[in-house]
Amino acid sequence: MRLNSVRSLILAYLVGSGTWASAQAPTTPPAPASPQPVATSPLFFPIKPGTQNFLSGSMGEIRPNHFHGGIDIKTDGKIGLPVYAAESGYISRIKVSSYGYGWLIYITHPNGLVTTYAHLNHFTPAIGQYMVQVQYQKQAFDVDVTLPETQFPVKRGDIIAYSGNTGGSGGPHLHFEVRDKEDKLFNPLRYTFTEIQDNIAPTVYNFALVPQGIKSRVQGQFQRKMFTPVKQGNLYTIADTIPAAGLLGLEIQAIDKYDGALNQNGVQAMELTVNGETIYRHNIDGVPFELQRQVSAHINFPELKLSNKSFQRLYVADGNKLPIYETDISKGKFNIEAGKLYEVLVNLSDSYKNTSQLRFMMRGEDSGYYASGAPKVTTPKINYELAGSILKVTVADTAKTARNLDLYIGNYKYAVIPSYTTTAGSVYLYNLIGGLPDSVELTGTKTRFKFEQTIPPNTEMLYSNRYLDITFQKESLYDTLYLQTDHNAQDVFSINNPLTTLFKPAKVTIRPQNIPADKSKAAVYGLGWGKSSGFLGGVWEGDAITFSARDLGKFKVLSDTVAPTIKLVQKSPIQISFKVWDNLSGMASWRCEVNGQWLLLKWEHKNSTLTSERLDKTVPLSGDVVLTVKDAMGNEAVYRTKI
């Protein structure tokens, strides 16, 4: 389907419906293509209403493994600001956790929408006392309760809690969301809050052109090529015409800012036009909560991990199921033909209709063989890399004229002709769809590959070798995986690399060579980047351990036999608090008793602190205190004191 709808689609989502409280209000926000302008917001701003506020995070902002699902409202760098209900309804769910959203309230509204308020420091007295009772009843700090309509009804503008820095928050603020009953996340700024001022158009830092086929070239080479445009007002451009060939995809690194704040926020919407024809649009709004992890397919994930730069793709990559796109039949990819000129335009829009434009020209060239120099080496050298399904082999040869490369698949040998030659070497391209090669060779210089099996997406599949088993779920992979595994003398197991992320976990069983003496204290850890390691757990069966992998990379079995460390911070009849550390697997549970009675301890992982809260504030703490802390491997530490 070619896109010929009106260009106002990109900006249409920027205004609210004006029908939030009406009897005829829809059960979900209006489609982004057809909202009606309103003079004031149909929602009550949840922090310092009626005054200018500032954001530290926007809807759709790129996070390491998810889209940011709402807005982060600054709270003047402090905790304890009143948090107001955005509209009338009832508190339908309350969650308390040390991680993620931290202390969280959900309000369900008559039209079916839900607003959420996260990272709270504490609740209003009635709600707070109810939650403490629930915690004492369940004898647990982490609780998640669903409430009836009659429990805590609220009116628009009621104070429901006080802002904080709980959970995964990186500083004091309120995280505010608008959802529908199916947990789709909508941009809160579609409701045109006057408390947020934005007169700044998005900023374009870089863009990149990415080959999408074996005949694709950018500046004569099969390479992802990055360009830095020059700003001219709200137009970003480059002076040179870019030579290219074949099917290409475009990526953009861009940010947005709000008035009075230095934070770099996400850009809400982008539209790609080639020679006057719109072939792609995205609007990061209406994102299903369960698909937030698919941000890994929306961006160039390896580039984010390697350079910490977020490049959004302006094409729909394989495996991307997000419902935020409108594209032509090529899903935003465009073909460059020899001898033709192409004008590429990208409109970038924020939530307040500020728009920037990226513009550059491209010239189609022939993708046939050429030589722009010859490498100067005395011994042939072979390097290779994988780009999607294309194996790119670069050979620095001693010969002045490029020779064919021998490629071996089982007992068969194939001659691969060079695609082009530069001073770095001759480049040979091979599509792995034709079969997984064992090795390549040129005049006695040989490089072996570790490709073991092709794992297609949307298929449940088991792979086994002598040292591991991997079961991929139907939705584990975004795209075809060319599986490579390894097991070294240090008992480190490798499955491809951390640049390959999964949507749904894979089940992995590894068989270490060095079996731990006490398996009950041994588990699998992801080695991650550098020297870091993350606890993954696992279940032993014989001399094999099975665990769930959310990402590929390196894994190792480590033993944790050291109990957590407990230090008393302060004690009084009013409150007692402790510092707790663990050396490896991390704290899993804790229990505190005073004279044999359970005492609630609130856990804050950011400062490793347990702090008491009494059920009855009129009864002082007094007597024998016993704190028991266990890590994930069951190592136990006990601390005793008296108050």
Automatic annotation (TrEMBL):
SUPFAM superfamilies: Duplicated hybrid motif. CDD domains: M23_peptidase (cd12797). This is Peptidoglycan DD-metalloendopeptidase family protein. GO terms for molecular function: metalloendopeptidase activity. Transmembrane segments: none annotated. Pfam families: Peptidase_M23. Keywords: Signal. Residues 1-23 form the signal peptide. It comes from Nibribacter ruber. Residues 67-131, 153-184 form the M23ase beta-sheet core domain.
